Structure prediction request, 181 residues.
Amino acid sequence: MATSKPHHDAETKAIAQNQDYFELKPRGLNIVWGKEPRYWRIPPRTSSSTGSDGDEAAELVEVQWLEIAGSVKPLIPPTSYQITFVLSFKADASGWSGSSPVHLMAKVGRNGRYKWKRLLELEKFPKEPTEFPSSNDPFVINVPKDQIDTTLYFGLYEVWSGNWKQGLRVHKAVIKKMHLD
Prediction:
């Protein structure tokens, strides 16, 4: 049975952080159509005191509109942060090749400008949890020293093709502070 609100809203208990990173488990992300079981399987809340979801992944059953977003704060200016999603695919995944480009997008501050990257590596359909984008071609966002609103808004999107997609597993999103050597 459908719920009155079809989208899953991020739960703060599913977000871990320290001064160098943020880790968002699936329940810590906003997932469009995430409360509709015909579209997504979201891991249940655990009964642990931390409220974390362990290693369970959110599983895409089938959607045309892929939107998985999150936000974290505060970022520390002037600093750079690397954003990755840990993803995998089920054996029967489909709808991801060529005409369904998945983009990672991010901005700092509500009025910031989006930076984006097409995730071509997704088309390899890894079955094991894999970081996207890879550390060989990282997605880095800079926080200027004069930035007042230091909230990071980010997400994975494929909302342009209208193609049905299925079989994606979302394990977590990670935002890491970059250290200069």
